[in-house]
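Subject: sequence -> structure tokens, single chain

Hey, anyone have a minute? Need the predicted structure for the following. Not urgent.
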Amino acid sequence: MRVLLSGYYGFGNLGDEALLEVIVARLRARFPLAQLDVLSATPEETSERLGIEATPRWNMRTIAYAIDRADVVLSGGGGLLQSATSLRSLVYYAGILREAARRKRKTMIFAQSIGPLDALGKFVVKSFCRRVDRATVRDRRSQELLEELIPSMNVERTADPVFLYDHPVEEIDLSREGLGEGKYAIVSVRKVPALKEGVAAIARAVDRLYANDIRVAFLPLGGVVDAEVSTDIIRLCKSAPMLLPECDLSRAAAILRGADVVIGMRLHALILAARFSVPFLAIPYDPKVQSLCDDLEYPLDPLWVPGKGTPFGDTVDPLVDRLVAERSELSQLLGERMAAVRASAERNFDVLGELLG
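Reply:
Had a minute. Here:
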């Protein structure tokens, strides 16, 4: 069996690379004889890091060859079928599924979030993806949208594969980041147009955590751009939080696992926090972040919702105080959710097995 993976891989975004790492590990465990190929922006680096084949994602001739060689083409995981980034991006990912179906390869939308989609985006998904064999999506909203667009499609709600990530057996020393002793919080932000409305609220939340005797460090999961946005917020803080260096998945996971609390925009920062039962305050810049909170039945309101104005101190301070005061109860709640969530994440691979017969 030969599996071709299509996703936002090879760009150095830690969340997407975490997805790829977990998917590859689970495919190897479930289908040990399968040959794996991934469309990557940096195929040599991806191939060396994961020990799999990798195909340049920009060369349409090599993509067509990779599709012809595959038994099944997986689109995912991640938020690929959406028009918020650009119509070009949507056409790229949906076009690979359409071409795979045209070449009579088995196809699967794999552990994705669907949308947001404008009118043209909905047309692209309806026309390009109507012959996809199976689909798993990681939240209820995505399931409802995809079933509305393509009623004949077999769509199943699962969970993000990164919920299956297990921390390394060896302990990771975090002392070089200044996180070796005492309580600390992690903040993960990303650049979006509406962020300027919320930087003051995030800075206030950081200072409020410091007032609760919790040090704060910013973790740039998206590389240089995340580090630049983090620096802008740090400059507004009175408490001098740290900016951590970029790191690999195992180190980022260890940092998040050791945190007392997390404030997060990046979806996979929140997923890893939940995976390790670390309470968080979400900043839902995208529907997929709010959907995660909804599916977890998480009781805390978001710190701030981009596009809905600037929150004030009388909103931010009580939320942060509640996050700190109810940390044990929130951690227990997340821990109780994880068995079911991890089973749902494993279901992605069950469905693939069913597709392959």
